[in-house]
Write a structure and sequence with these properties.
heterodimer; A: alpha/beta; Elongation Factor Tu (Ef-tu), domain 3; Rossmann fold; 2 domains; seven-stranded antiparallel β-sheet; seven-stranded mixed β-sheet; 6 helices; 18 strands; about 30% strand; B: alpha/beta; TIM Barrel; eight-stranded parallel β-barrel; four-stranded antiparallel β-sheet; 8 helices; 14 strands; binds flavin-adenine dinucleotide; binds flavin mononucleotide; binds FE2/S2 (inorganic) cluster
Chain lengths: ~290, ~300
């Protein structure tokens, strides 16, 4: 996304945590006001913010909720120092927000398959809402997690989606189908293609990178278009530091991503293989890079 | 290439096919990205500042925007260390016609010299030394003419390629530092690095950057940069590369008129890679309209106006 004017929201503005919802044992949703200088920034599903935890760190978080009054919500999985510190924060505590950043998903006409794995479900929540409004008859949502306990927004999704619009799976089979989202997708593809008829099918997804690389293979094999949201280490969030760049296309995940389509993903050497750390050094995802 | 000709510049024997050079610390990590920047119109690139060993830098927030195209950063010289970065230099060098400048720093003059020498071996066309980051230890070098002399001399002895010295604006008299660098053997000066600054959050009462003090870049610092280039160019005979707050071709021209022979672009990349091509094409158009053969003809023209005060 090339901008024409610098937005004032590149400076973190501090705001009180308005409410906290425990979603799963490891995930909490935080709601804050997102009215900056009297304006409510508009949010595209898949965009993210940088959340400043004063004295600790500033980290990227997908925007998972947008309320009419200008409040936004984001869901945090407790994985390390900063997310742990966030999990300890309470209503009334101050955090800083800047953004929204990134391109977001481009919801296309035709049949949509929206897939979320683990905390990645936070990134697709708004997209599911949008797709439901746009074309409810051409929608399938697949969510997966390691165990039943970690299935994010499960009740809510079951409320807004018909059983025919939703598939659930867990790695251990503790809820829904046993297996990975990619397996569930392949198993149901024939049926989905029948439902889609002549309509183009697009898959939208967020989850662990290994899930996304497997998904790209499935999509390539079956000629489905994929839009996947990636994660890379970030400092600036607006295209200056270069830490989030994926090679060899010079694509900045913070600006040109985090959502990339099949055409781009197929050209990336880094996808599923390399990340850069806080120093800019490249390392293999599967190595024990310290 | 022919189209670019009026924009060819030569600095310390290095031929640049465009006077636009990527500033250190901006996007300077991925080799393919450096090549893409060249395709968009950069004649040279400066890597992020590389030290003798891996360094994590400061935690986030480390780069924020303040509005009006102005930014504050305290990255803290995060870098993988020269050993691990060397193959990236070799990779960046693979692009034909692109001048590769490696920015280096260290804890002492030996570190500087060793890092510079390794960078040259890896393929650097020129070394830029960062003695000027306002939020790291190296800032204490670039504020003292004697220490500057010592460091420039040490690096100069260790390398064979041209040496650029990047100056800090956070001094009483930049000219003294610049002259000292020239005397010690610098082949060009780069002015300016970021201006020391601070932003405080009014609700938490805390500085926003994790490190506290940061370096101001972007639109707000351009007049400071232009002024320093102007004063330096009166006092030294080596070329000056202007830097700070360039967002369009007019800004580039200002730096040239003040005495620059090339410029570095940093914060303007906020607007994406296209801005490079826009600036380049507009410069060509300007030169054509004025019937000028080369942008170099503009260097220092503002000095003809005697009413410009030399001092503050
Ligand atoms: C665009 C984007 C959207 C994200 N959305 C969500 C979300 O909705 N919910 C959620 O729980 N998590 C999300 N994440 C991941 C989240 O940012 C990390 O889990 C968090 O930064 C971890 O910080 P930590 O200190 O707790 O853990 P650490 O132990 O410090 O790090 C754990 C992992 O997080 C990564 N990480 C740490 N700092 C950063 C940073 N500045 N930028 C990018 N990655 C970092 C590390 O590389 C490491 O792989 C998102 C990441 C990106 C890039
Ligand atoms: C995020 C960021 C990181 C920077 N890192 C370095 C660095 O490592 N070494 C250096 O010499 N200058 C560094 N700088 C300074 C720039 O190279 C440049 O001198 C300064 O930003 C002014 O130019 P600009 O206004 O065009 O950005 C950095 C600037 C920014 C914004
Ligand atoms: S996070 Fe700095 S360029 Fe993307």
């Amino acid at each position: 996304m090339t901008k024409n004017e610098q937005s004032i929201t590149d400076k973190p503005f501090t705001t009180e945590i308005k409410s906290v919802v425990q979603e799963t044992p490891l995930m909490k949703t935080y709601y804050v006001s997102f009215v900056v200088q009297g304006k409510i920034p508009s949010v595209i599903p898949g965009q993210f913010i940088l959340v400043w935890i004063p004295g600790i760190d500033e980290i990227p978080m997908a925007i998972s909720h947008v309320l009419d009054n200008g409040d936004i919500g984001f869901t945090v999985k407790d994985v390390g120092e900063a997310t742990h510190a966030l999990h300890k924060m309470k209503i009334g505590d101050l955090i800083g927000i800047r953004g929204p950043y990134g391109n977001g998903y481009q919801l296309k006409d035709g049949f949509s398959i929206i897939i979320g794995g683990g905390i990645g479900i936070a990134s697709i929540r708004l997209l599911v809402q949008k797709a439901l409004q746009k074309n409810p008859n051409h929608l399938l949502v697949i969510v997966g997690a390691q165990t039943a306990k970690e299935l994010l927004y499960l009740e809510e999704l079951q409320e807004i989606l018909k059983p025919s619009q939703m598939l659930v799976c867990t790695d251990d089979g503790s809820h829904g189908n046993e297996g990975f989202v990619t397996m569930i997708l392949e198993k149901n593809l024939l049926h989905i293609k029948e439902k889609a008829g002549a309509n183009r099918i697009t898959v939208y997804a967020c989850g662990p990178e290994i899930m996304l690389t497997n998904l790209l293979k499935v999509c390539n094999t079956h000629k489905l278009e994929l839009e996947a949201s990636l994660e890379r280490f970030m400092r600036c969030g607006f295209g200056l530091c270069g830490l989030c760049v994926v090679d060899p296309l010079g694509i900045k995940i913070c600006q040109n991503g985090p959502v990339l389509n099949s055409a781009v993903l197929n050209e990336l050497d880094d996808f599923g293989k390399f990340h850069r750390d806080v120093t800019g050094e490249k390392y293999r995802i599967d190595s024990n890079h310290g | 290439m022919k189209l670019n000709k009026p924009l060819n510049v030569s600095i310390a024997g290095l031929e640049f096919n465009s006077p636009l050079i990527l500033a250190s610390g901006i996007l300077g990590v991925s080799p393919p990205t450096m090549h893409i920047l060249a395709d968009y119109g950069m004649g040279g690139i400066t890597t992020k500042s590389i030290g003798p060993v891996k360094r994590k830098g400061y935690p986030n927030p480390s780069i924020i925007g303040l509005g009006n195209d102005t930014f504050l950063n305290a990255v803290g010289l995060a870098n993988p260390g020269i050993e691990r970065f060397s193959h990236e230099i070799t990779e960046i060098k693979k692009k034909e016609g692109l001048v590769v400048i490696v920015s280096v720093f260290g804890d002492n003059s030996n570190d500087f010299a060793r890092t510079a020498s390794l960078a040259e071996k890896a393929g650097a066309d020129a070394i830029e030394i960062n003695i000027s980051c306002p939020h790291a230890e190296v800032s204490s070098i670039g504020v003292d003419p004697k220490i500057t002399f010592e460091y420039v001399r040490a690096v100069k002895k260790a390398i064979h390629c041209p040496l650029f010295v990047k100056l800090t604006p956070n001094v009483t008299d930049i000219v003294k530092i610049g002259m000292s660098a020239e005397k010690a053997g610098a082949d060009a000066l780069v002015a300016i690095n970021t201006v020391s600054g601070l932003a405080i959050d009014i609700n938490t009462h805390r500085p926003i950057l994790a490190h506290g003090i940061g370096g101001l870049s972007g639109r707000a610092i351009k007049p400071i940069g232009v002024r320093h280039v102007f004063n330096l160019s009166k006092a030294v005979s080596i070329p000056i590369i202007g830097c700070g707050g360039i967002f369009n071709y007019e800004d580039v021209l200002e730096y040239f008129l003040a005495g620059a022979s090339a410029v570095q672009l940093g914060s303007c990349l906020y607007y994406g890679y296209d801005i490079i091509t826009q600036i380049r094409d507009n410069l060509i158009r300007y030169l054509e309209t004025r019937k000028l053969d080369s942008i170099s003809q503009l260097t220092g023209l503002a000095h003809h106006y005697k009413e410009i005060g030399f001092d503050d």
